[in-house]
TrEMBL record:
This is low-specificity L-threonine aldolase. GO terms for biological process: glycine biosynthetic process; L-threonine catabolic process. Pathway: Amino-acid degradation; L-threonine degradation via aldolase pathway; acetaldehyde and glycine from L-threonine: step 1/1. It comes from the Eukaryota. One of its GO terms (molecular function) is L-allo-threonine aldolase activity.
């Protein structure tokens, strides 16, 4: 038994706060499939307002938010979308756009900062005059912040340029904004401005904002009307869903203001890790709440072994590929948790015999 556990596996591991639990217990609810749940309505209106879009729809998860958005834009089977080769939609969502939606992914290389080169995106757009062979490009997807690049942020100028490109070719632009609030806080740019060029955005409330469940997709009235039908098709229409939306609303009210502190703690953790012999963090990559840490070959510990060793100290982290582990900060991690974790990591990496 360890005396203290610090859970840095993900920002999805947070526990609902007392305020969230109270809001859930007291939520005013009705049948949301029929469109009558007032607490769901209130949350959707608020997220639509923050994102500067006409309408919004609560969905059970970020994965379903992305899937519904892609399929709403690509109603013809065999449509093609352009997305980053390390995007969450491409790597971590079971290929749902293909298996469920008949949508073909065309990947473009993600740069280290989460962008894709505009020229490469343009080159990936299919020439409609050869539709006898080519699938039809219908959508470009971006991710902000970009998880696989360590939570780096796409600037509004970059998103605008992709938006202009999409317009030029008659395509739609979707943003996987699972952590758009982290990007907004890190860049000091309102969410509304960051997603101005997008036709749809999927926003997670159960990541950095700490809600127990749920995402919201935003877009035009007509986009959301179609999305609502698809949500039902996929089994994501829920009845007295206000119980969940009540907690998500609290997350939105109380936790956006805490993200700046999360980002500061992520920086402190990254700087501390960099001082531990055998570990290396690219400090420039730490813009939000995610820290990727490389294990140098000289210490002779694999990423799985190090995660196991840290677990023994009560420090929970996840492997992120060969000789790399990841730490994610969230609102239930304190300054003292960060310092305690650094001491334990120091012991695990440099203090233990028989490291292999
Ligand atoms: C960037 C990004 N998009 C989408 C998702 C999917 O969210 P969910 O786990 O709610 O399905 C995640 C989950 O971690 C994510 O990191």
């Amino acid at each position: 038994m360890v005396a203290r556990t610090v859970d840095l596996r993900s920002d999805t591991v947070t526990k609902p706060t007392e305020a969230m639990r109270a809001a859930m217990a007291n939520a005013e609810v009705d049948d949301d499939v029929l469109g009558y749940d007032p607490t769901a309505r209130r949350l959707e209106l608020e997220v639509a307002r923050i994102a500067g879009k006409e309408a919004a729809l609560f969905v059970p998860s970020g994965t379903m938010g992305n899937l519904i958005s892609v399929l709403t834009h690509c109603q013809v089977r065999g449509s093609e979308i352009i997305l980053g080769d390390s995007s969450h939609i491409h790597i971590y969502e079971n290929g749902g756009i293909s298996t469920i939606g008949g949508v073909h992914p065309r990947t473009v290389k993600n740069n280290d900062d989460g962008t894709m080169d505009i020229e490469l995106i343009e080159a990936a757009i299919r020439d409609p005059s050869f539709e006898i062979c080519f699938p039809t490009t219908r959508l470009i997807c971006l991710e902000n912040s970009h998880a696989h690049s360590g939570g780096r942020c796409l600037s509004p100028e970059y998103v605008d340029r992709v938006g202009e490109l999409a317009k030029k070719y008659g395509l739609k632009l979707h943003i996987d904004g699972a952590r758009i609030f982290n990007a907004s806080v890190a860049l000091g740019v309102p969410v509304q401005r960051l997603v101005q060029a997008a036709d749809s955005v999927s926003i997670c409330l159960s990541k950095g904002l700490g809600a127990p469940v749920g995402s919201v997709i935003v877009g035009s009235e007509s986009f959301i009307a179609k999305a609502k039908i698809l949500r039902k098709t996929l089994g994501g229409g829920m009845r007295q869903v206000g119980v969940l939306c009540a907690a998500a609303y609290i997350a939105l009210q109380e936790n956006v203001g805490k993200l700046e502190g999360d980002h500061k703690r992520a920086k402190t953790l990254a700087e501390g890790l960099n001082k531990i012999k055998g570990l290396k963090v690219d400090l420039d990559s730490v813009q939000t709440n995610i820290v990727y840490c490389d294990i140098l070959e000289s210490v002779n510990i694999t990423e799985t072994k190090l995660c196991k060793m840290l677990e023994g100290y009560g420090i929970l982290v996840l492997p992120e590929g060969p000789l790399r582990i990841r730490f994610v900060i969230h609102h239930q991690i304190s300054d003292s948790d960060v310092q305690h974790s650094l001491s334990c990591i120091q012991l695990a990496v440099n203090g233990a015999p028989n490291k292999k």
